């Protein structure tokens, strides 16, 4: 397999973007940052892949309009997934593995605030027996949180501990839109929202976009002294129905983690839009207590649709670039209640590449 | 003045779906007032039935009737219902394992406060007044009355085999309607505000000097934001056109009529508009046309402020003047 590294990353996150849901306006400066980080122009990018959804944009072919931000004369090699940025990155990683290209820029965008996000997401559910009831994202997460509380796997205090740590860490993240830790007691004293969830157990509605640059071998070494080499990447999906899987587990996350060598991971960026989901993921990935979880503040404090997972990859990669860590883990999720999961490891060394 | 123009938009579509033999059997049961599960190779009874067995991957063919009474296995409070949920006031969503089933069904539970719900409580199906063969034939679950609640639950999988129905449900229509607050980009906002004042505004790319109308957030040729505002001429050249003879849903003009690309003088991209004031068979490439506006009191933030384009009577443009814009 070819050695492929994350060598560039840029992001924008905000509570409400006052602009078109095609997000070209956000993407142009993101690409500019990526060119500055790499010293490239758009002509150095061998492959482009985006993640977005027209259901979020409220218009057709929003991803085609977004291509304007690239500039396509001469034509570019381009693709799209109706999935999170992390899966766009996966497609680009495959593309580089084929040998057809050596570099890729992947991006994703979404204006969640244009509609009612928790309602719009009912369209990703089973269309015969679920969507007609419009089960919203918060309700489905609440069913999952209750199942774990009833089973004695976690409690409201453990959920509040996740929220308090995330809000505290988010203070150092200029992009986080909800920040400011207090104490577990103070959080537990706040009113219930969607019992058993309080508002701080749920990620805020977030607009935004992000971009990740990948490069193979020497192309990566030309860009950075310490590229974040993708030493493992794996993704799986669980059945869609809420009744046919144990909601306190995430078998697809477990399988994805088990396919990789997670030994020596120092930092893990987990895409957990609800506080209890971080507890599920830590268990499924078997992360030791000394692994730093979500030093960025995580998705609980800022979760732009379609880039929230890929931002975990970017935040993790930054830890390798800076020398803060030699091996990190990034996770992305999609679908209701941790249905679909991607796990990757990033390292300062290509040794132990288990792709 | 806000940075961008915004307007409410509703995107709606009725998805017509065939149900197939498994979901169709389940929906036929609901229509007839019974809940039907599918038995898996491992002996589980799943509601709604799975189309394929999770172990053998064979199609599900073994259907059993389960009770309309069951037990809550998880629930969540819905303090702020969203449009088209089973209730428009606070309620609970619940996972309910019906007696005779081994896996829970997701549906609404009609209670007025979270204090009225608990895991393990006994509930029953409340049927909709009219049943058509859809998941909404179950209006919701409701708590059993005091006294009834002692009805013992069974953990045993039902073995009450059901026979095929004479008139199975074969399809379902699922209406989807989504409301958005749609924002135009700052560049589109410039364009529509200009139209509201009787002007046609474009923007020039600083890299390739091309003028786009309507302006875009970035030049699609080289990705550069197009910042320089340009007010365009209201006269232009027809680069290509078609005569519309075929009626279609939503058509606003009676055929035949001419739709044409009009390259406004000074622009590098044509706008699509209606050509009137000339018989359709006389419209041609290179014809010079000008914008004909509606009365000013009808203007709004819309390209429809321009009623149509009409011939100027000037000589046709040379092909060389528009050959790069075809």
UniProtKB/TrEMBL annotation, chain A:
<dbReference type="GO" id="GO:0016746">
    <property type="term" value="F:acyltransferase activity"/>
</dbReference>
<protein>
    <submittedName>
        <fullName>Lipid-transfer protein</fullName>
    </submittedName>
</protein>
<dbReference type="InterPro" id="IPR016039">
    <property type="entry name" value="Thiolase-like"/>
</dbReference>
TrEMBL record, chain B:
<feature type="domain" description="ChsH2 rubredoxin-like zinc ribbon">
    <location>
        <begin position="194"/>
        <end position="223"/>
    </location>
</feature>
<dbReference type="GO" id="GO:0003677">
    <property type="term" value="F:DNA binding"/>
</dbReference>
<dbReference type="Pfam" id="PF01796">
    <property type="entry name" value="OB_ChsH2_C"/>
</dbReference>
<dbReference type="InterPro" id="IPR012340">
    <property type="entry name" value="NA-bd_OB-fold"/>
</dbReference>
<dbReference type="InterPro" id="IPR002878">
    <property type="entry name" value="ChsH2_C"/>
</dbReference>
<dbReference type="InterPro" id="IPR022002">
    <property type="entry name" value="ChsH2_Znr"/>
</dbReference>
<dbReference type="InterPro" id="IPR052513">
    <property type="entry name" value="Thioester_dehydratase-like"/>
</dbReference>
<keyword id="KW-0238">DNA-binding</keyword>
<protein>
    <submittedName>
        <fullName>DNA-binding protein</fullName>
    </submittedName>
</protein>
<dbReference type="Pfam" id="PF12172">
    <property type="entry name" value="zf-ChsH2"/>
</dbReference>
<feature type="domain" description="ChsH2 C-terminal OB-fold">
    <location>
        <begin position="229"/>
        <end position="294"/>
    </location>
</feature>
<feature type="domain" description="ChsH2 C-terminal OB-fold">
    <location>
        <begin position="64"/>
        <end position="127"/>
    </location>
</feature>
């Amino acid at each position: 397999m070819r050695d492929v590294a994350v060598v560039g990353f840029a992001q924008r996150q905000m509570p409400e973007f006052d602009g078109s849901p095609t997000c070209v306006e956000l993407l142009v400066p993101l690409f500019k940052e990526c060119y500055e980080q790499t010293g490239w122009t758009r002509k150095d990018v061998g492959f482009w892949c985006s993640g977005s959804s027209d259901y979020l944009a409220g218009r057709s072919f929003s991803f085609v309009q977004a291509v304007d931000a690239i500039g396509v004369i001469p034509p570019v090699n381009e693709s799209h997934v109706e999935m999170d940025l992390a899966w766009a990155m996966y497609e680009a990683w495959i593309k580089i593995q084929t040998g057809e290209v050596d570099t890729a820029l992947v991006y994703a965008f979404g204006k969640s605030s244009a509609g009612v996000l928790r309602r719009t997401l009912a369209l990703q559910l089973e269309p015969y027996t679920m969507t007609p009831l419009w089960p919203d994202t918060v309700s489905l997460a609440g069913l999952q949180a209750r199942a774990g509380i009833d089973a004695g796997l976690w409690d409201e205090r453990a959920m509040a501990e996740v929220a308090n740590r995330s809000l505290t860490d988010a203070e150092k993240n200029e992009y986080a839109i909800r920040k400011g830790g207090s104490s577990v007691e103070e959080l537990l004293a706040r009113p219930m929202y969607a019992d058993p969830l309080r508002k701080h157990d749920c990620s805020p509605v977030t607009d935004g976009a992000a971009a990740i640059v990948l490069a193979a071998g020497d192309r990566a070494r030309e860009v950075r002294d310490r590229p974040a080499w993708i030493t493992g990447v794996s993704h799986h999906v669980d059945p869609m129905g809420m009744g046919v899987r144990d909601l306190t587990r995430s078998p697809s996350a477990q399988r994805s983690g088990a396919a990789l060598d997670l030994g020596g991971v120092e930092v893990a960026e987990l895409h957990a839009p609800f506080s209890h989901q971080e507890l599920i993921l830590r268990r499924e990935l078997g992360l030791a207590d000394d692994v730093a979880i979500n030093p960025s503040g995580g998705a609980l404090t800022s979760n732009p649709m379609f880039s929230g997972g890929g931002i975990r990859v970017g935040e993790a990669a930054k830890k390798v670039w800076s020398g803060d860590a030699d091996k990190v883990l990034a996770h992305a999720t999609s679908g209701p209640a941790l249905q679909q999961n991607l796990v990757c490891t990033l390292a300062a060394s290509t040794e132990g590449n288990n792709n | 003045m806000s940075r961008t123009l915004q307007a409410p938009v509703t995107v709606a579509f009725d998805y017509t779906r065939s149900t197939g033999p498994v979901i169709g059997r389940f929906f036929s049961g609901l229509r007839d007032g019974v809940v039907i599960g599918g038995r898996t190779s491992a002996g589980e009874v799943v509601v709604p039935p799975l189309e394929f067995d999770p172990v053998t991957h064979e199609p599900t063919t073994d259907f059993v009737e389960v009770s309309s009474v069951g037990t809550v296995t998880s629930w969540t409070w819905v303090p702020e219902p969203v449009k088209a949920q089973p209730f428009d006031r606070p309620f609970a969503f619940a996972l309910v394992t019906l007696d005779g089933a081994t896996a829970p069904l997701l549906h609404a539970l009609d209670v007025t406060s979270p204090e009225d719900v608990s895991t393990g409580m006994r509930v029953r199906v409340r049927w909709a007044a009219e049943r058509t063969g859809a998941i909404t034939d179950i209006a919701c679950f409701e708590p059993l009355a005091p006294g009834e609640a002692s009805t013992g639950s069974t953990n045993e999988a039902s073995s009450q085999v059901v026979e095929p129905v004479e008139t199975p449900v074969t399809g379902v229509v699922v209406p989807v309607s989504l409301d958005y607050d749609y924002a135009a980009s700052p560049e589109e906002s410039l364009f529509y505000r200009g139209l509201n004042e009787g002007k046609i505004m474009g923007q020039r790319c600083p890299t390739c000097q091309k003028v786009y109308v309507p302006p875009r957030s970035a030049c699609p040729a080289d990705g550069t934001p197009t910042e320089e505002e340009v007010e365009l001429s209201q006269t232009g050249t027809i680069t290509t056109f078609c005569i519309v003879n075929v009626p279609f849903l939503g058509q606003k003009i009676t055929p035949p009529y001419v739709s044409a690309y009009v390259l406004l003088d000074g622009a590098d991209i044509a706008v699509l508009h209606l050509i009137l004031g000339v018989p359709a068979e006389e419209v041609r490439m290179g014809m010079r046309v000008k914008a004909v506006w509606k009365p000013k009191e009808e203007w709004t933030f819309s390209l429809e402020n321009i009623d149509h384009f009409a011939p100027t009577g000037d000589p046709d443009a040379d092909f060389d003047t528009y050959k790069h814009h075809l």
